[in-house]
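Supplementary notes (optional reading)

For those who missed the lab, this is the record we used. Protein: EutP/PduV family microcompartment system protein. Length: 147 residues.
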Amino acid sequence: MSKRVMIIGAIEAGKSSLIKALFGDEQPARKTQALEYWDWAIDTPGEYSENPMFYRTLMATALEAALIVMVQDATRDRNYFPPGFAQGFPQECVGVITKVDHPAADQQRAEEFLRQSIGEVRIFPTSAYTNEGIEELRTFLQEQLKR
């Protein structure tokens, strides 16, 4: 599959764990230091989303992607994406809320944060720990890549 999805989000938002769950890789996730290419996914370092100095790198890398996945950690009390951030990408964006199984998770707050940055698009609540929502997300992403 030559088309890919690009996964973006804050440091420790659960991007690498999400990708590992999507690919059925049970090894523990580690800190992503640079762009990492999987079969049909691109894992980006959290610094790229948190620091405006790296936005240009995200935009350039997005040219290799058919779809952008914006990740929001359900345990965070702030949005790391600026308002309307998804509009900077020519591709379609979808949202993913991670860590919905965590005791401190606030799924509604996470969705509100994503909506500020991504608008009215599909948002998937997930847990890489319990696999909640992973199969549905995988199926959706693979269908999008076939288009």
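If you only remember one thing from this example: The two ends are 12 Å apart (CA to CA).
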